Amino acid sequence: MFKSGNGHLPIACGIKTIRRVIHHQPSALLFYQNRQLELYAAKEAKRLTLRQLVYFGRHMNEERLITSANYVRTELPIRIAHRLRDLQALPYVVVTQEGVAKVYELYWSAFEKLRNYPPVTSLEENDQFCKFVGTLLNEHAPVIPNLSLGLSLASPHLPPDELDSFMRRMLISRISRRVLAEHHIALSDTFSGRGRETNGEPHVGIIFTGLNVKRSVERCARLLKESPLWSMSSSGPRDSSQLPEVKIDGHSSTTFAYIREHLEYIVFELLKNSMLATYSKHQNESSIPPIHVTIAAGEHDVGIRISDQGGGLAFRDQLSKASDLFSFSHVRNSTRLEDSRIGALRTASENGLRATVDEQVGNWHKAHAKDPTASDTISHELLQPRIGIGLPMSNIYATYFGGTLDLVSLDGWGTDVYLRLPKLGTNLEGIEV
């Protein structure tokens, strides 16, 4: 049932409202589709571990590849169905918010396409299935900013715990579906000889079985320092030499099996925040203190600590505690409803957002190529207006397989961030039904 301030509305009416928000025209009550949705939503998602994904994909043959395709084909609509039910359970006033209706439409379309997709029985059919799934992934690029926009606008109508719980379920599920889809596509590419270049690093699908943590940290620091946008900023450093150095210590030879894209997104976001804060605090001094990254390989986990001297989070006016930076509620993070952030989310909703390092770097180079001299482009692309996606998504990535991300702010001095990721690969995906 849809909940409103004065009662409840039938789900069919809610669906009708959602579709009218987008198309501005009446639509059918979709009773048949509702019955199908109930069937799929009643099924339990088959959660996997990294170890299972690696084990199954390590010795790939035609039979296993087709089995993988049909698992993805049948599992994705189940996971989408659970999230459609989540959307249908939102209060009526939230359903009509800008962005929410768009996400619902995308999810409903994907659900219908996937549940009606025929079984895969050959390599040729698998190639077509991979193209089909790849198209769906591209179509869903606007999901993150649209969700964030819609729930930011709806924040006054939802309790903070309810809002954050909803966003966590939606984003974790989104990550899980992309992992299944992208992993299968990568396995198919490798099997057909179209595998991507990985500089000799061992991998199975999208999982790097010997992921070198130090190398990933160094890559993130290098990409940040090499950004062409620094020289375009009217408020940032004129060149990368003015940015703080990143010093790495601890167990620098640590390797483990993990999804490199997830680890590097988290590290990239954390280093970006540290670099900007440290430069801002020390730009008028003779030297800028370095950022220290410590790697620790425990028995069950890999830990990364990032320490900066950027003055701390200074969150007293807008946040009550550091972890509120992960929240999508304006009650916990008042910046959620700032006009500049809402405007930036609208722009991102039109362009799409995949939450990857390569996407950000690509956007920076596009901005620089478009106007190499513009001093305000950096504000839009790197420094401002801070749409507030980076830290919440980093937290979601960290917790997907049971890790943690914690921030400790020393007001007036700096911030320590502690990332812990499981290294044995035995944790199930953190999706919720």
Structural commentary:
The model is unreliable at 1-17, 21-32 and 375-381 (pLDDT under 50). It contains 15 helices and ten strands. Helix 4 runs antiparallel to helix 9 and helix 7 runs antiparallel to helix 9. It is of the alpha+beta class. It has helices at 11-23, 31-41, 50-58, 62-88, 92-95, 100-115, 123-139, 143-153, 160-191, 213-225, 260-282, 339-351, 357-370, 377-383, 390-399; strands spanning 2-4, 7-9, 203-204, 207-212, 246-250, 255-259, 291-297, 301-307, 404-410, 414-422. The two termini are 17 Å apart. Strand 9 and strand 10 (414-422) form a beta hairpin. The strands form three sheets. Strands 5-7-8-10-9 form a five-stranded mixed sheet. Strands 3-4-6 form a three-stranded antiparallel sheet.
Structural class designation? alpha+beta
Apparent shape:
globular
Give a short account of the largest sheet. Answer: 5 strands, mixed
| Poorly predicted runs | 1-17, 21-32, 375-381
- From the alpha-carbon coordinates, what is the Rg to the nearest angstrom? 22 Å
Please bin the fraction of helical residues: 40-55%
Q: Which oligomerization state do the chains in this entry correspond to?
A: single chain
Mean pLDDT: 86
Separation, N- and C-terminal Cα atoms: 17 Å
Q: Could you tell me the strand content as a percent range? A: 5-15%
Strand order of the largest sheet: 5-7-8-10-9
Give me the secondary-structure topology.
Layout: E1 2-4, E2 7-9, H1 11-23, H2 31-41, H3 50-58, H4 62-88, H5 92-95, H6 100-115, H7 123-139, H8 143-153, H9 160-191, E3 203-204, E4 207-212, H10 213-225, E5 246-250, E6 255-259, H11 260-282, E7 291-297, E8 301-307, H12 339-351, H13 357-370, H14 377-383, H15 390-399, E9 404-410, E10 414-422
Parallel strand pairs: 5-7
Antiparallel strand pairs: 1-2, 3-4, 4-6, 7-8, 8-10, 9-10
